[in-house]
Design a protein that fits this description.
The structure is a single chain. By secondary structure, the protein is an alpha/beta fold. 34% of the residues lie in helices and 17% in strands. The chain contains 14 helices and eleven strands. The strands form two sheets. A nine-stranded mixed sheet has the order 3-4-5-7-6-8-9-10-11. α7 packs across α12. The longest helix has 21 residues.
């Protein structure tokens, strides 16, 4: 069960007639009303801003590696073999030849709701070119991070590079980062995070009006990879189906121009189950993050001692919740890749009540088997991905094709590991925008 803006909805039990009414409505004119996007929404409040050269910010540095190859990464063959270093050079080139290298960054806060439905002030950042026309708004759901210094309001996000192509880019922090870094991040809680992301967009619209920032096309572009890929698809679903994000006449507040989803854990339960069966994961810290994230807001929280082995059990509060460590650093602290070295035998046994409670939460935060998108989409996934298994996207393709959706482009190939896939996804998005 999901609580969104005081409306309780169970998408897995949604009547089929509701799905039929919203299925595949491509081309409907649903525009942002820049005069009154949502009555009573408090505008985004800036607390820090600066203008800088995106090339000098170099947000790709954290993905650089100390090796390269001698093939042409601009070709499909070379792209399929590219290392992170090769791909970073392509990203840098795209920025260099973009519309505007100098980018204005504005960090600020906005109002949303927490896991209990209570008001909460969250933070995020807006990026836009210093000069020239702004084509569209891009609403980004960012990928998994560990340290607070990596969050959008504190850093130049990798996705912020899209502003160099002439876009206004909105990137929320999520609960647990930025001004709420003292809170536990409700990792992969789908509707909560998606509504937090959308609420920043609602707050930025009146802020843009205050500053007389105009865009040529008021439709919304959605984009995200990994955790952000799943969140982005949930953002799309809320825009299309959730009453709070619709006008009084029933039309959505936003018209989605296109959604870019990359390698998302769309089926959290199946992703978790898949890793358990393989007894390995490409991102060890994601396992405790998922279990803890599902527990946040439950009437009776999950017992971490039931799931975590030592030394994780004694250290997860410091490693995960201090927000001092990056994902890579947390993985090094955990120092194992086999899930049987991280999780207890009881914690992986589905016949146990506590494990069943976890799986119910995982299922509730997955894309419904009945969801049918009604906006154009581009879906990307590397079939080599061991961090977010390809089966996530494969399952959705079957689901969407069965529903007869036509305006979806599937880009599935052997593009390397999860990190290389992220850079390839960003390159492909930059080339299409």
């Amino acid at each position: 069960m999901f609580k969104i803006k005081n409306t309780t909805i169970c998408f897995r039990l949604m009547p089929i007639i509701c799905i039929m009414l919203t299925a595949c409505r491509y081309g409907v004119a649903e525009y942002v009303d820049f005069d009154a996007c949502k009555a009573g929404v408090e505008p985004f409040k800036a607390f820090y801003e600066t203008t800088s050269n995106a090339l000098e910010e170099a947000p790709w540095d954290m993905y650089a590696k100390e090796y390269s190859a001698d093939y042409d990464v601009t070709t499909p063959e070379g792209m399929g073999k590219a290392t992170s270093t090769d791909l970073i050079s392509v990203v840098r080139s795209l920025v260099e030849f973009g519309n505007c290298k100098r980018v204005h960054q504005v960090a600020g806060t906005y109002m949303s709701e927490d896991v209990d439905g209570q008001p909460i002030r969250l933070s995020g950042k807006v990026f836009y070119p210093e000069k020239g026309d702004i084509k569209n708004i891009i609403l980004v759901s960012h990928f998994t991070i560990g340290a607070n210094f990596e969050c959008p309001s504190e850093a130049f996000s990798l996705e912020g590079l899209l502003s160099t192509l002439g876009y206004l880019v909105i990137v929320p922090d999520y609960i647990g980062y930025g001004v709420t870094s003292d809170r536990i991040h409700p990792y992969l809680q789908a509707d909560l995070t998606a509504s937090n992301v959308l609420d920043m967009a609602l707050a930025v619209v009146p802020w843009m009006k205050q500053r007389n920032i105009q865009v040529k096309d008021t439709s919304l572009i959605l984009l995200g990879y990994s955790q952000g890929g799943a969140t982005t698809l949930h953002v799309q679903r809320l825009i299309e189906t959730e009453p709070y994000y619709r006008r009084t006449d029933g039309t959505p507040l936003f018209r989605i121009k296109r959604t870019y989803c990359g390698a998302g854990p769309y089926d959290v339960a199946q992703t978790y189950d898949y890793s358990i069966k393989l007894d390995k994961t490409g991102i060890p810290c994601a396992v405790p993050m998922i279990i803890q994230g599902m527990s946040v807001g439950m009437g009776e929280p999950l017992d971490m001692a039931y799931f975590f082995k030592e030394p994780l059990l004694s250290n997860y509060q410091e490693w995960l919740n201090s927000k001092k460590y990056t994902v890579k650093q947390i993985n090094l602290l955990i120092n194992v890749n086999k899930l049987s070295d991280i999780l207890t035998e009881e914690g992986t046994n589905k016949s146990n009540d506590e494990t069943q409670r976890l799986y119910r939460q995982l299922a509730n935060n997955s894309i419904s088997d009945y969801y049918v998108p009604s906006s154009p989409m581009y879906m990307f996934h590397s079939m080599d991905d061991q961090t977010v298994p390809f089966i996530n996207s494969q399952k959705l393709q079957v689901q969407f094709d069965t529903a007869g959706c036509k305006d979806i482009v599937y880009d599935f190939d052997y593009y390397g590991d999860h990190t290389s896939g992220m850079l390839k996804f960003l390159i492909k998005c930059m080339q299409q925008l």
